[in-house]
Amino acid sequence: MALRKDRCMGRLAILLLFSDDSTEHLAKLEQSNWKGCTGKVGSMDSQKIVAAIETAAKKNGIIQPNVYRESHALYHAIIEALHGVTRGQVQLGSVLRTVGLSFAVLRGNPYDNEQEGDWIAVSLYGTIGAPVKGSEHETIGLGINHI
Amino acid sequence: MALRKDRCMGRLAILLLFSDDSTEHLAKLEQSNWKGCTGKVGSMDSQKIVAAIETAAKKNGIIQPNVYRESHALYHAIIEALHGVTRGQVQLGSVLRTVGLSFAVLRGNPYDNEQEGDWIAVSLYGTIGAPVKGSEHETIGLGINHI
Amino acid sequence: MALRKDRCMGRLAILLLFSDDSTEHLAKLEQSNWKGCTGKVGSMDSQKIVAAIETAAKKNGIIQPNVYRESHALYHAIIEALHGVTRGQVQLGSVLRTVGLSFAVLRGNPYDNEQEGDWIAVSLYGTIGAPVKGSEHETIGLGINHI
Amino acid sequence: MALRKDRCMGRLAILLLFSDDSTEHLAKLEQSNWKGCTGKVGSMDSQKIVAAIETAAKKNGIIQPNVYRESHALYHAIIEALHGVTRGQVQLGSVLRTVGLSFAVLRGNPYDNEQEGDWIAVSLYGTIGAPVKGSEHETIGLGINHI
Amino acid sequence: MALRKDRCMGRLAILLLFSDDSTEHLAKLEQSNWKGCTGKVGSMDSQKIVAAIETAAKKNGIIQPNVYRESHALYHAIIEALHGVTRGQVQLGSVLRTVGLSFAVLRGNPYDNEQEGDWIAVSLYGTIGAPVKGSEHETIGLGINHI
Amino acid sequence: MALRKDRCMGRLAILLLFSDDSTEHLAKLEQSNWKGCTGKVGSMDSQKIVAAIETAAKKNGIIQPNVYRESHALYHAIIEALHGVTRGQVQLGSVLRTVGLSFAVLRGNPYDNEQEGDWIAVSLYGTIGAPVKGSEHETIGLGINHI
């Protein structure tokens, strides 16, 4: 039932955000039986962050759009990742701050046991701060859920 | 006032946790004018996580133990990182879960502008789950504060 | 000072939401010295949920509109019920989700002791999910306050 | 993809708590392809609430104890239900309050679409208040998750 | 229905904490139809803060101990005041911090309208910080509720 | 490292809000080596509260507008003060409530030790309630940060 060291999907989803060439990086992950996608979104509106990630995951076939359990799993992984980014209140514009984020979604089984089935990881990395250029610091978030 | 790309301390603090040889990795960071330390802590008791990081940072001279503003900066960075790890309530044992974490603390100036002075980053990476071996998934957190 | 089993107002307020004929159901409750009202509201805007319940309670004479202590008691009962519905952040549209809710407000004394005076219960039941038909699951909330 | 009216598992899980004869009530639910269990737990220690529900669900075969994804699904449903009960901070003794709760766990597919697979509902109903007999009011919580 | 300027009970409850001679100060407030008490409590255990205030309010006859609605009103005022003190998570020792607080409880009607009846204010003022002398800064909280 | 009794900046920042003549009061504080400013803001929009305080602090030279660490320190002090005002969720209009607040910002060193450098206090006092005249009670908040 243990996590396989070479299949730590949270670590992989973060490294994907840090890579210089995410296309090539993703191609390698796909060879190891992961499905994934990446994207960028900047907004003071938390709703748009959620929408951008959901849209990318559906467009790239990471989740099946017409099966609610898959959207539900992804949604909670996104909100959990946003907790890391916002650290206290899942709010952006309403407390006068904005984010510029890269995101990745990764799907596969990180466990030894096949019965564990697919899990989904959402990673976020970028900056958070005042809506003034340069008045910002880095921020990171990771959400993991069974799917 | 912008973040210097090669001095993104949050990214560096996370990569330090992912490195195979953190001693060597830290040595390189010190050559780039960062001060840092790493450690490990596992507990159901959130208090012990905070204490382990504070102790390591003081022992390794990352912060001055007798200047409260430095402890205050570190403390808030730790709590912010714990938000990413716990995603909702900064609670572990009281909601029957436990963590096994690596942590890193990094200190330096990530900005172009010298006036920005020192900032501190606390990164956390490991697993969170039930107090049963294998019943856990990965978790990550990052807190950044001026010091 | 104990709760009277036949006067558990939280239970009654929930059953009122589940009943097929809430008008008849309310009529019976009124014979047992409860005042109450029911309604429906669907929105991505949490403000509208609060407003719909407050308006219904005032229009139906459950609270006195010109006595602030009564509005104050109702307001806190509503927010507490919304905690059960939202489970973490009292936010809907800002985290890209919507609700379709039935609500009930019930007023009376659930305790043996007459000195306990009136209490107010707000119950909520319905669905929460993505703003896409069918992408939702059930949700419930109950807030109880002295009035 | 819609919820089937006769299969609203949240509503069913709450009604199970309100029934006079939960054994008979459960037997009927099992005839409609639900798996379920009920129990009681009273404590100032939130950890014990979580443990009691997890233990009952495993003992009664509602979830497979050796498959982490099932424990993970149940755990999050429990914590979501506790949000309804605690309304703000998932804390009991640490803010000097105690609960006496009935709980139910129900598993099955509430949707028309077979692809939605199994979902799990955790319902909680009882009293919350000061650790003084009678100084308490009712409280309710519901958590629903895909499994 | 407006607040009477000379009867702003929150302001009065805070000034009571700042006064050099709280006994004399309280005596004056009692001449203006307020009931009140003050005290001190220091702890890493949030439960003890709640208990100390409840005990003082009951001992000094600010609330009737055998009427639950009065304890309920006081309890929520205390928790609201603790939000100001803790600013995020109502936790002390579990996140390795401690408080040294003065508290005041004040009861009376701050409104023009007699129908508003009695309200209760809980004010807290002191220091919060690491369990190390001097590693602390000031903190304040105010909770107001109808009773 | 202890707080100097005559330099408790949180207490001073609150008293500034209570004073009848804040201009004269501020002048005295400036003679004791504090920098400060005061203002008023009323809104259902939490973003406007944050903006009003930031603007006042920059216009009055309390913080340097082009040094991010100073804005960062002020921002977190504001959000902490808002926790005291909102007591649970840092939300106003989205939960149908509004505030009318006086604010003060104070900067200086409250500690014996010169090495502690400057700290910043943000104090808030006013009313919170429904967007209906008179349906409101007092509220207070204090945030303190190193700068």
Q: What is the C-alpha radius of gyration of chain A, as a whole number of Å?
A: 15 Å
CATH architecture of chain A: 3-Layer(aba) Sandwich
CATH superfamily of chain A: Hut operon regulatory protein HutP
Side-by-side strand order of the widest sheet of chain A: 1-2-3-4
Secondary-structure element order of chain A, as H and E?
HHEHHEEE
Tally of helical segments of chain A: 4
Could you give the distance between the termini of chain A?
A: 17 Å
Commentary on this structure:
6 copies of one chain form a homohexamer. By secondary structure, chain A is of the alpha+beta class. Chain A has a single domain (5-146), classed as Hut operon positive regulatory protein HutP, CATH 3.40.1510. In chain A, 36% of the residues lie in helices and 29% in strands. Chain A contains 4 helices and 4 strands. In chain A, strands 1-2-3-4 form a 4-stranded antiparallel beta sheet, with helices on both faces. The longest helix of chain A is centred in the middle third of the chain and has 19 residues, at 68-86. Chain A is globular and about 45 Å long. The mean pLDDT of chain A is 96. The interface between A and B is medium-sized, with 35 and 35 residues.
Brief summary:
The structure is a homohexamer of 147-residue chains. Chain A has helices spanning 9-18, 22-31, 46-59, 68-86, and strands at residues 35-43, 98-108, 119-129, 136-146. With 147 residues, chain A is α+β, with helices and mostly antiparallel strands.
